[in-house]
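Q: Can I borrow your eye for a moment on a structure tokenisation matter? Would you mind producing a protein record, from residues through to fold? Write it directly below this note and I will take it from there.
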Amino acid sequence: MKLDCVIMAWALYLFLVMFWAAPMPLKLFPTPVLRATPSAEPQEGSPVTLNCQTKLPLQRSATRLLFSFYKDDRAVRSRDLSPEFQIPTASEEHSGSYWCEAATKDNQLLKRSLQLEIRVQRLSSTAASPTLTSAPQKPAASETASTEPPGPLPPPTTPSSEDPCLSSPLVVPDPHLHHQMGILLKHVQEVRVLLGHLVIELRDLSGHRKPETTNAPAK
């Protein structure tokens, strides 16, 4: 009975030793994630880098993984130690669905990432074609002659003292003064009329007094 207990104890001990000494399987590393740098929609002619990101456990950090990259069900790079795939100059033919694959050297463990859509943006015709600047044209001889500044103007002519029209200034009648003169002439005419009536009355009075003076001595 005691022998059976000792054998079972040794068997349990050996099992525990073998369990702790066994290597940890690599299936614990996460599924890789494919990322594009700087963008999944690069401009035509710009570089693009695809990175297959995953991380090994700390106990197996020395283990090497091999990375493969695929585009539209075709391998563009197979089983390489670098987790990056570079496209130096992106063009329309690089557009498509990409995914990556991380695997051990013995292919016992293999994991694929989700698909990443790469869409290369075409450059517009205005941005692609250089702008042409027209060179300045030289002006013709006639144009250069016409653009020259004019010469000095002749001095203005001064009026001569011999010309009677230019020697005396023009006198412009004052309308207010003309109106006042008209009113004055009207008053003068009215005074003349009054004087005429006064003279007639004086003559009449003098005619009535003369007979009285002549008849007085006859009495």
In short: The domain at 26-122 is CATH 2.60.40.10 (Immunoglobulin-like).
